[in-house]
Amino acid sequence: xxxxFRSFDTLLEIGVLxxxxxxxxxxxxxxxxxxxxxxxxxxxxxxxxxxxxxAVVAGAYLLWAGATAPGGAFQAGxxxxxxxxxxxxxxxxxxxxxxxxxxxxxxxxxxxxxxLAAYVLTGTLxxxxxxxxxxxxxxxxxxxxxxxxxxxxxLFAAEPNAEMxx
Amino acid sequence: xxxxLFYECLGAALLAIGLAGFATRSAALQRLLAVNVVGIxxxxxxxxxxYDPVAxxxxxxxxxxxxxxxxxxxxxxxLALLVRLARREAEADDEASPR
Lengths: 166, 99
Prior knowledge:
The structure holds two protein chains of two kinds.
Chain A: H1 7-26, E1 29-30, H2 42-65, H3 73-89, H4 101-122, H5 133-157, E2 159-160
Antiparallel strand pairs in A: 1-2
Chain B: H1 3-24, H2 28-49, H3 58-96
Helix pairs in contact in B: 1-2, 2-3
């Protein structure tokens, strides 16, 4: 529903998420790269080892099932963001891959590119060619899910800059 | 009382509670939570109007999903503002205290 009938809404929604990241950065909050602590507590390490793989699989399932059941890019991105938050709390260096601005922008970028490509192909913005619409939506959803996870995680992990202006 | 009417009233009640909280509290975080409650009241009202035992209307559902995501982003931004505000107040306190 969200990606075929209300695709314009969803495009703007992902744009709003990205805009929020830009706004948070404009407020002077940054994402310093931290070193891995020598030994996180065994309980935290055990929890991370248990929960993160499950969350990755659950998010991937939600992403795939979103075509026909409740789920989709936003739900998958939210679950993955939860896993990233947990990794961050354990000071894992795995989260560094998600700090790239390109990843956060990929969701909007891919969606906008698809909208323009659909316009070129069928004359109407966001009107995917009917025969391959499923593939278009899948590509957009995958990019959007990674992007949403990165943005939501970075909204959590933002910290005040040391030399924040008043 | 029909299902729709019941949840519409519940949504309106949440909205009222949130507004009351926003009007009476002065702490920034409490006001942010109150605004969240207002948002949830609106979502509940929207979903209530979409109720139909046979074929629920999907458009308000899509609107609410989009609204939830936008509300999350707005919360993130508001919290960043709160961090900045707390920083500013801490620095003002540092300046005002006698050395």
